[in-house]
Design a protein that fits this description.
- With about 240 residues, the chain is of the alpha+beta class.
- The chain is about 55% helix and about 10% strand.
- It has ten helices and six strands, in the order ββββαααβαβαααααα.
- The strands form two sheets. Strands 1, 2, 3 and 4 form a four-stranded antiparallel β-sheet that branches. The protein has a two-stranded parallel sheet with strand order 5-6.
- Helix 7 (about 175-185) packs antiparallel against helix 8.
C-alpha cells in the first residue's frame, strides 16, 4: 500500500526485516512510498515508530499525523534521486543564515538575539572552522567563501537519512546553523524552535497573538520536532 491512499484498508501493522533493513507491513503487504518504492529503513526503532503512526490512523488516513512516514518517504523518493540538489539547497541557507541578521533595535530584542544566537554562531566556528559575519539590519552581507564551502561539506557528509532530516529542519528554522546544531545534538527541538521563532515570539509578547502567526509557529514547531525525532530514532 502506498502512503498516498486516503482510506484505511488494513487491520494489522507490523515491522519486517528485509535485506538488512526494516520495513512496515500492512496486513502482511509491504508498505511503499508515494513513488512506489519499498519503504525500507536503516533502524528498527525508526520502522517501529513509522508503524505506530499507521496503527494510530482512523478510518481515513491523515498524512498530517504521519511526519515520520513523510520524512522516510521523502528520503527515498526525493532526496535519494536528487541528492546534489538537496545538498545545494540546504547549504545555501548559510549565505543568509537567520542567526547572522540581528535587529538594530529595540535593545531588548537585540539582546535576546545576541544571547540566543551568538553562542551557536560561535559553535559553528569552533566545531566546523567556519566563522560567519553578523550584521544589524537587513542589508545583505557576504559570508566568507571558505566558511560557506566548509558548511556545504558538512551538509554533503550527511548520509541519506540524516540529510533528509537536516534539510527539513534547516528549511523550517530558516537557518543552516540551527539545522546543523540539531543534527549534531548541540541543541534539542525545543531550543531550535525557540531560537528560530525568537523574533516572532518577541513581537507576540508586545502586540499579542495573531491566529495566523500562531498556526504558522505551530506548523514549524511540528516540522522541527519531527526532524529531531527522526534523528533520534536513527541513532538507535
Amino acid at each position: 500500500m502506498s502512503v498516498s491512499r486516503k482510506r484505511r484498508r488494513y487491520r494489522e501493522v507490523g515491522v519486517v526485516a528485509r535485506d538488512g533493513l526494516h520495513g512496515v507491513a500492512l496486513d502482511g503487504k509491504a508498505l511503499a512510498t508515494p513513488g512506489g518504492q519499498p519503504l525500507l529503513l536503516p533502524q528498527r526503532a525508526l520502522a517501529e515508530a513509522v508503524a505506530a503512526e499507521w496503527r494510530a490512523q482512523g478510518e481515513q488516513l491523515d498524512a498530517g499525523t504521519m511526519p515520520l512516514t513523510r520524512l522516510a518517504s521523502s528520503a527515498i523518493d526525493v532526496v535519494a534521486p536528487h541528492r546534489a540538489a538537496v545538498v545545494e539547497r540546504t547549504a545555501a541557507y548559510a549565505a543568509s543564515d537567520l542567526l547572522c541578521y540581528r535587529a538594530p533595535g529595540p535593545a531588548a530584542l537585540a539582546g535576546r538575539q545576541q544571547a540566543g544566537w551568538q553562542p551557536l554562531v560561535d559553535w559553528a566556528e569552533r566545531h566546523y572552522g567556519a566563522p560567519l559575519r553578523v550584521t544589524a539590519g537587513i542589508v545583505a552581507i557576504v559570508q566568507p567563501a571558505a566558511s560557506l564551502a566548509t558548511l556545504r561539506g558538512a551538509v554533503a557528509a550527511a548520509d541519506l537519512w540524516r540529510l533528509t532530516a537536516l534539510a527539513a529542519a534547516t528549511a523550517a528554522c530558516g537557518s543552516l546553523i540551527l539545522g546543523l546544531a540539531l543534527l549534531e545534538g548541540e541543541i534539542d527541538a525545543a531550543a531550535a524552535t525557540a531560537l528560530s521563532l525568537l523574533d516572532e515570539s518577541y513581537q507576540s509578547e508586545r502586540w499579542g497573538e495573531d491566529p495566523e502567526a500562531m498556526a504558522r509557529r505551530a506548523a514549524l514547531s511540528a516540522e522541527i520536532a519531527a526532524a529531531a525525532r527522526f534523528l533520534d530514532l536513527l541513532a538507535g
